[in-house]
Design goal:
Blueprint (H helix, E strand, L loop, with lengths): L1 H10 L1 E3 L3 E3 L10 H14 L7 E5 L3 H12 L3 E7 L8 E7 L6 E7 L8 E9 L3 H13 L2 E11 L4 H7 L4 E10 L6 E3 L1
Parallel strand pairs: 3-4, 3-7, 7-8, 8-9
Antiparallel strand pairs: 1-2, 4-6, 5-6, 9-10
Helix pairs in contact: 2-3
This protein binds guanosine-5'-monophosphate.
Length: 191
Amino acid sequence: MKLLEERILKDAAVRAGNVLKVDSFLNHQMDVKLFREMAEEWKRRFSGKKINKILTIEASGIGIAAIAAEVFDVPVVFAKKAKSINLDNDNYCTKIQSYTHVNMYDVIVSKKFLTKTDHVLIIDDFLANGCALMGLLELADKAGAVVEGIGIAIEKGFQKGGQEIRAKGIQLESLAIVEVMDDVTGEIVFR
Ligand code: 5GP
């Protein structure tokens, strides 16, 4: 998506550890007008799919997913990071490894808000190694919900997540796919 790629080139910074910093428009300060354009693009790309719910994960997926939910005219539910002590029978639960691999965390979604009647579009800000998405897929699977597709703002194509998700046969629509990023020169190249 040209608009998002141009914004990344204009405002993103490449940091050590393969981290793209986009906090001026995507995941700290949020450009909601851009989110709407992104949501309209997903709406076009998933036009053949019957979607009745959007699923994301806190925190940085929520803003994007909320705007997408308005465009798709469906409810949005976010998986919550939870303390193990609070896990109970009312929730589906899984463990996700953080992108930095420093820690694992528990995420939950209430059995009330994800069920076998749901046809879900998963939305998130980044796809890197795919740990967050695998966790969301597991929650949907536990609920018996059908995952109709996955919409990602920025996929880092040189990390393994995208390939693994596509190998599962799931429609994955990343609006910008970064193929190369260099934290010394600041160069960013899209697929
Ligand atoms: P994965 O689970 O696919 O390895 O990583 C996805 C999650 O890690 C995203 O939800 C995002 O919060 C975070 N993440 C991964 N790579 C980046 C990055 O380059 N920049 C930022 N800001 N977050 C990232």
